[in-house]
Amino acid sequence: MQNKRLELMMGIAEKELSGLASIFDELSSTLGDKLMEAIDLIKKKEGNVVLSGIGKSGMIANKIAATLTSTGTSSLFLHGTEASHGDLGLLKENDILFLISNSGETIELRNIVLFAKNNNIKIISITANRDSLISKKSDVPIILPNFVEACPHDLAPTTSTTMQLALGDIIAITLMTEKGISKDDFKSLHPSGKIGARLSSVQDVMHSGDAIPLASQDATLSEALVIMTEKRFGCIGLTDAHGNLVGIITDGDLRRCLSGDILGRDSKDIMTRKPVTISGKITVSSAISLMNKKKITSLFVLEDGKPMGIIHLHDLINISAL
Description:
Layout: H1 2-26, H2 30-44, E1 49-53, H3 55-70, E2 75-79, E3 96-100, H4 110-118, E4 122-127, H5 133-137, E5 140-143, H6 159-178, H7 183-189, H8 193-198, H9 202-205, E6 214-216, H10 221-231, E7 235-239, E8 245-250, H11 251-256, E9 272-273, E10 277-279, H12 284-294, E11 298-303, E12 306-312, H13 313-320
Parallel strand pairs: 1-2, 1-3, 3-4, 4-5, 6-7, 10-11
Antiparallel strand pairs: 7-8, 8-9, 11-12
Helix pairs in contact: 1-6, 2-6, 3-6, 12-13
């Protein structure tokens, strides 16, 4: 039974992957040309990209609208049915109508197409039928390559909606890249949630002031150990007479030196010089990557060589998981 189930799941995945592979294969031909036309048209217009669709295609249209907006291209979702009951007023002349319909003959979308044509509103569409009404009325008709739905009856929208979504992502991310949307721009569009947290600057989330475990490099190891234990970061930073960070002592350094009478020695005798540090302007996601790469759990944040804060890997992971 389990083998049959696994075989079924693998077959479903294979059909979905086949649809994506066909998009990849045809990007260098007509499909790629049409996607570029769509992107150029969106860049040329000053209004919103208004996406619409019915059923599963409508859900994909809603998601593409959200992706476009979150990556710097102002977009809206217009429900295909509600459009004929007053919501067509949402469409303006400088907007672009972006229709998603597998058949290209969705009855509920015909009124939207007629309204767009009567008001000189450009139309982009994604359909599976180049001879359909919607495709023929579109300024930029994007046609899905041949596919087989993952549904065993080749009926339920599965592979087709995966392909629609992929094409939407291609358009959105290409626009984002060509517009030069930076991480700071992306952060401003996502001030809350996990994305916003990961794009926050280290200086926004670091421990600062009295929370920083610091001592003079001339302090005895016993004095440094008291501060290190109190602050609970598993390390202590050592500074020179000018307040510059010159080294650190970690739990690992202490374990490696636990022989003989070491507590009376100066901290600088066992400190690690030129430790890995970070700027406060670095993003949380970049800090996590650096700490994982270097296999360290704490980093001092420096400004002009002086410690202005400290971050701990567990804190950053907890913040970015919110």
